[in-house]
Specification:
alpha/beta, 2-enoyl-CoA Hydratase, Chain A, domain 1, six-stranded mixed β-sheet, 13 helices, 10 strands, globular
């Protein structure tokens, strides 16, 4: 985490080469969330990536599942990952996702939990790919996407399990805007700086009232996590993940670059 000013922070995902999400990133984000929540000066937090081609990727399927499930529940009573996302949505500061590269699985989930998201028109790819390999997503997209883009489009994203590029993501309302890549950093920085100049009481209370109008319940988020954990242990999902790994999944190359295509091959 870095500070541009007392009121404006940036959280940078930096786990090369693929920005895979493991238990260590969950633990780090948990510490960051606690620090941000306790900091009365923070008004805006921008999430971005230092890894070329990847905003934040899917979970690390070569890691030990118990390293993730063994993390204690968070202050909301939810498991560690959905707890972080729920707290981010309800935090008294504004969260912005700057998406350049793949936001696959976990990356899409944190973008959906942020208050706003802005994507590179040329380089952003969003994906909830899980159903394609027999999984259920665990970070709440089933609860958040229908509220954001409508039921039909949410089912298209979730059940189609395909890559959604920046321009289509903007058209669907999956992200606030898709901007030319050369303009993305400047736009987000200007907006974040503008919001950071405003009064925090007004920011936090406006966000609180918007949340009251349309926010998933903890029960919905918990149900998604439980379904995810059940799905991971299913033999059908295990076989598909193993087949993807044999093709080059979780290595630099075509499978990670075109994950939507490869996930779709299991249904052929």
């Amino acid at each position: 985490m870095t500070r541009k000013s007392p009121a404006y922070c940036r959280v940078i995902f930096d786990n090369p080469p693929l920005n895979l999400m493991g238990a260590e990133i969950v633990l780090a984000l948990r510490e960051i969330m606690a620090a941000l929540e306790a900091d009365e000066q923070v008004k805006v937090v921008v999430f971005e990536s230092a890894v070329d081609g990847f905003f934040l990727n899917h979970s690390d399927f070569l890691g030990k599942l118990e390293d993730l499930t063994g993390i204690p529940q968070g202050p909301t009573g939810l498991e560690a990952w959905p707890d972080i996302l729920a707290r981010l949505t309800r935090a008294p500061f504004v969260s912005i996702a700057l998406i350049r590269g793949r936001a696959t699985g976990n990356g899409s989930e944190i973008a959906l939990a942020c208050d706003m998201s802005f994507a590179s028109r040329e380089k952003a790819i969003l994906s909830q790919w899980e159903v394609g390999v027999g999984l259920v997503a665990g970070g709440g997209p089933m609860a958040r996407l229908p509220r954001l883009i409508g039921r039909g489009r949410a089912l298209e994203v979730l059940l189609g399990s395909d890559d959604i590029r920046g321009d289509l993501a903007e058209f669907y309302g999956y992200v606030n805007r898709a901007l030319p890549d050369a303009e993305l950093n400047g736009f987000v920085d200007a907006l974040a700086g503008r919001i950071a100049s405003f009064d925090k009481w007004a920011i936090s209370n406006t966000k609180r009232l918007v949340n009251a109008a349309d926010l998933p319940s903890d029960v919905e988020l918990s149900a998604g996590w439980e379904a995810c954990m059940t799905s991971i242990m299913r033999p059908a999902a295990q076989a598909k993940i193993k087949a993807l790994l044999a093709q080059g999944f979780q290595k630099v190359g075509d499978v990670e670059d075109r994950l939507g295509f490869y996930a779709g091959q299991f249904g052929q």
